[in-house]
Amino acid sequence: MPFWQLILGAALAYLLGSIPFGLVLTRLAGLGDIRQIGSGNIGATNVLRTGRKGLAAATLLLDLGKGAAAVLIGAGLAPEMAIAAAIGVTLGHMFPAWLRFKGGKGVATAGGVLLALSWPVGAAAFATWLLVAAISRYSSLAALAACVLAPGYALLFTTIDRAAVVGLVAILVIIRHRENIRRLLSGEESKIKLSGSAAG
User: Fold this and answer.
1) Domain count of the chain?
2) Are residues 84 and 13 in contact, defined by beta-carbon separation less than 8 angstroms?
């Protein structure tokens, strides 16, 4: 496949990834700008801080869905297009041009990417997130644990090329969690609270 087609595919995936579902849904619900609430993030965890669990769940599913859709559409064209789409959609969610490149942390979108690249990898990463979140009550720590282990899962279940892409996506998510890492180390990170609002 010509390189320009891969660039075009990655760009289209970026546009899909940059749709800020958390911001759109909270505004439609009359809750204002989600970026002015809690951590200021546009992802599902911060939407949960509004106390609207349904909106948070919808944000999670839509962010996951756009990651999976980009990869599946790319895979329908060529294996290498799936890889380009995986990177493009992740970057789009994290750095959307119309939000001054200040987007989400990419956990749900990356989860969709993993499920589409290899569902056993996505399932294993999700199981890791659930286990660590249930034990620690830290959403960010659960995401970091899933990211650290995801490349290993990919080596077990898929090809070297796809494992490398999983590793790159995981690194991007970890970088976006640098402030969470600082707060975890200092004991200032908020825990998940399902009654009312949540943090992490």
Assistant:
1) 1
2) yes
Domain limits at 162?
3-186
Asked whether residue 194 is assigned to any structural domain, the reply reads no
Tokens at 89, concatenated: 């959609």
122, burial (CB in 10 Å: exposed 0-12, middle 13-18, buried 19+): buried
34-68: per-residue pLDDT in tens?
A: 888 877 788 888 898 888 889 999 999 999 999 99
Q: Is residue 109 part of a domain?
A: yes
Q: pTM for the full model?
A: 0.90
88's CB contacts (< 8 A; 6+ apart) are: 9, 10, 11, 12, 13, 14, 17, 70
Four-CA torsion 21, 24, 26, 28, nearest 10 degrees: -140
Closest alpha carbon to 147 in 174, 108, 121: 174
Under DSSP, is residue 91 helix (H, G, I), strand (E, B) or coil?
helix
